[in-house]
Write a structure and sequence with these properties.
The complex is a heterodimer of chains A (268) and B (250).
Chain A lengths: L4 H25 L3 H21 L3 H22 L4 H22 L7 H6 L7 H30 L1 H6 L4 H23 L4 H14 L4 H26 L3 H28 L1
Helix pairs in contact in A: 1-6, 1-8, 1-9, 1-10, 2-3, 2-4, 2-8, 2-9, 3-4, 3-8, 6-8, 9-10, 9-11, 10-11
Chain B lengths: L7 E12 L2 E12 L3 E5 L6 H9 L6 E6 L4 E4 L13 H5 L7 H10 L15 H14 L4 E5 L7 H18 L2 E5 L3 H6 L3 E5 L3 E5 L1 H5 L2 H7 L1 H21 L7
Parallel strand pairs in B: 3-7, 3-8, 5-6, 6-7
Antiparallel strand pairs in B: 1-2, 1-4, 8-9
Helix pairs in contact in B: 3-4, 8-9
The chains are: A mainly alpha (268), B alpha/beta (250).
C-alpha cells in the first residue's frame, strides 16, 4: 500500500494536518503568523546547510529555525525596532543568505521549486516516519504545556501571577514551531507552510465557540484541505502544495458564509 | 501593622521597579497577612499597578526584597483584552489556571451574580459583566491571596457597593489576604484594614482613619477626601449595628 505515491502523500498529509491543527490555532491566537513565516524562510538556510555539510535535512532545518527563533527573542529585548520589522529583517536575511549559499553549490542538483512550494507526491517512507514520529513528539509536548500556554495566550500577567510559567511555555512553543516547520516543509514548501498553519485555524474560528472545538475543526479542515488538494492535483495535474492551500482557502471562504448566517440569527 | 500570629502571605521590603532606566516605584515596603485587606490608593501614574505586579512577580524588583509565602494566588488584572480570534466561554475561562469542578464554577459565578453567563462567550459580555466574571474566576480556586486591581471598574453603582461587600465577606469567610487597588476612596476606607497611599513611593500608610487624617493624604486627594471619610464613617456605624457583623474599632 505504501508503495503507491498517492497513498504515501495522503498519509504524510494526514500526519502534518494533525500537527498544524493545534499549532495553527495557537499561531493565530498569539498573532504569530508572520513569526511562522520568518521561521519558514529561515528553513531555506537550514536546507542549504544540510546540503553543504551533508546533514539530515529536517534536523538541519530544525536547528537553524530554532536558532533564528532564539535570536529573535533576544533581539526583541535589545532593540526598540517593532516586532514586525525585526521579523522582516530576520526572514529576508536568512532567505538571502540561503539563496547565496545555494548559488555556490553549483555541483549539487537541487530542486528549489520543490523547497519553495513543496512536493508532497515525492515523500518516501522515511519522510512519513519522520512526520509521524516527530509529529507525535510535538503533540505530546504541546499537550504537556497546553494549560500554561493557553493561560499565557489569554493573559500573560494573569498566567505569571498564578504560577503558570508563561515564559517557559512560550519558549517551548517557539521551538515546537521550528520543529513543525522542519517536518512539514517537504509537503507544502516554505512559502506556503504558514498558509497550512493559519487557514484551517481561521476557518475553524468561524465555526467554533470554544477553544477545543476550534482545535478539532482546525485538524479536520487541514485533513480536508490535504485530501481535496491532492485529488485535484491528481485530476488536473496541478502542483500539489499550492492545490492544498487553494483547497484550504475555499474551505475558509465557505466557513465565512456559514458564519455570517449564524450571526444574523443571533442578532435579530 | 498590628502584630499577631496570622500568616504573612506576601512581603515587600524596600522594593523598587524600573523600566527603561526610569524608576517607577521606589522603596516600597508592605505586608499582606491572612484575613487582612490592604488597599493601595494614589493618583494616576502613582505606581499602584506596578506595585501590585511587583508583589506578584510580574515586574521584577531591581532592589529590595519581594517574598511570596503562598502559591495559591487569585489575580484580577486591571485590563484583560480577549482577542476575537480566541473563542472562549466563561466556563473555559473559569478553569484557566486551575482545575476546579463545575460545582465550584457555579458557586463562584453565583457569588458575583453572573451564573447565567456561564456558557456565554467572553466577547459577548459587557464591561461590568466581564469584571464580575474576572472576580469570580479569581475566587473560584479559593486562593490564599487575592490581588484585585480596580476590580469594580465599569460596574454600576449598586453593584459596586455589593461587590465591595462581597470582597469583604470573602476575606472573612475564607481568611484569605487581599491586596486591593482602588479609586473609590470612601468605599475603600470602609472595607480596609490597612491603607497604603502611593505616589511613586509610600506617602503614608496605616489604618484608614490615620491615613485620612494625615497631611500627605490631604495634599494628594484634597480636603474633601477627608470629609468624605467622615461622612462615610457615620454610615458605617449604622450599617454595622443592623448588620451584627463583628468589626474592629480603630
Amino acid at each position: 500500500m505504501l508503495d503507491d505515491f498517492f497513498i504515501r502523500a495522503l498519509i504524510a498529509g494526514l500526519g502534518v494536518s494533525l500537527i498544524t491543527g493545534p499549532m495553527g490555532c495557537f499561531t493565530i491566537w498569539r498573532r504569530l503568523s508572520f513569526f511562522g513565516d520568518t521561521l519558514a524562510h529561515s528553513a531555506l538556510l537550514g536546507v542549504t546547510m544540510a546540503l553543504t555539510f551533508e546533514l539530515n535535512i529536517p534536523l538541519a532545518v530544525f536547528v537553524i529555525s530554532s536558532i533564528i527563533a532564539v535570536m529573535l527573542l533576544s533581539l526583541q529585548k535589545k532593540t526598540r525596532l517593532p516586532g514586525d520589522a525585526l521579523l522582516g529583517l530576520l526572514a529576508h536575511s536568512s532567505l538571502a543568505i540561503g539563496l547565496v549559499v545555494i548559488g555556490f553549490l553549483s555541483n549539487i542538483r537541487f530542486d528549489v521549486m520543490g523547497l519553495l512550494f513543496g512536493d508532497i507526491l515525492a515523500v518516501n517512507k522515511v519522510d512519513i516516519l519522520i512526520i509521524w514520529i516527530g509529529g507525535a513528539l510535538i503533540l505530546i509536548i504541546l499537550k504537556f504545556i497546553w494549560k500554561s500556554l493557553f493561560a499565557a495566550t489569554v493573559n500573560y500577567d494573569l498566567a505569571e501571577a498564578e504560577g503558570m510559567k508563561p515564559d517557559r511555555a512560550s519558549i517551548i512553543f517557539t521551538i515546537l514551531m521550528a520543529a513543525m516547520i522542519a517536518i512539514a516543509i517537504k509537503m507544502v514548501g516554505l512559502l506556503l507552510i504558514t498558509g497550512m498553519l493559519i487557514m484551517p485555524a481561521a476557518m475553524a474560528r468561524n465555526l467554533s465557540d470554544n477553544p477545543s472545538k476550534m482545535v478539532v475543526l482546525s485538524i479536520v479542515g487541514g485533513i480536508m484541505s490535504v485530501s481535496i488538494g491532492l485529488f485535484a492535483s491528481l485530476e488536473f495535474n496541478s502542483p500539489s502544495g499550492p492545490s492544498i492551500i487553494t483547497a484550504a482557502l475555499i474551505l475558509f471562504l465557505l466557513s465565512l458564509i456559514n458564519f455570517r448566517k449564524s450571526n444574523k440569527i443571533k442578532n435579530y | 501593622m498590628e502584630t499577631n500570629n496570622k500568616k504573612t502571605l506576601i512581603k515587600l521590603e524596600n522594593a523598587s521597579v524600573e523600566k527603561n532606566k526610569k524608576i517607577l516605584v521606589k522603596h516600597i515596603s508592605l505586608e499582606v497577612k491572612q484575613g487582612e485587606i490592604v488597599t493601595l490608593i494614589g493618583p494616576n501614574g502613582s505606581g499602584k499597578t506596578t506595585t501590585a505586579k511587583m508583589a506578584l512577580g510580574i515586574n521584577k524588583a531591581f532592589e529590595g526584597n519581594v517574598q511570596r509565602y503562598t502559591s495559591q494566588i487569585g489575580y484580577v488584572p486591571q485590563k484583560v483584552m480577549i482577542d476575537w480570534t480566541l473563542p472562549i466561554r466563561v466556563n473555559d475561562f473559569m478553569q484557566l489556571t486551575s482545575k476546579i469542578n463545575s460545582e465550584e464554577v457555579n458557586e463562584a459565578l453565583n457569588f458575583t451574580g453572573v451564573d447565567h453567563l456561564k456558557n456565554k462567550n467572553l466577547n459577548e459580555l459587557s464591561g461590568g459583566e466581564f469584571q464580575r466574571v474576572l472576580i469570580a474566576r479569581a475566587i473560584a480556586k479559593k486562593p490564599e491571596l487575592l490581588v484585585l486591581d480596580e476590580p469594580v471598574q465599569g460596574v454600576d453603582f449598586k453593584g459596586e457597593i455589593s461587590l465591595y461587600e462581597l470582597i469583604r465577606s470573602i476575606s472573612e469567610k475564607t481568611n484569605c489576604g487581599i491586596l486591593l487597588i482602588s479609586h473609590d476612596l470612601h468605599v475603600v476606607m470602609s472595607a480596609t484594614d490597612y491603607v497604603v497611599c502611593l505616589n511613586g513611593h509610600i506617602c503614608c500608610s496605616g489604618t484608614p482613619k490615620k491615613v485620612a487624617n494625615s497631611n500627605q493624604y490631604r495634599e494628594l486627594f484634597g480636603d474633601r477626601a477627608s470629609t468624605m471619610l467622615s461622612i462615610y464613617e457615620h454610615n458605617h456605624d449604622h450599617s454595622h449595628s443592623t448588620d451584627g457583623t463583628i468589626k474592629k474599632n480603630n
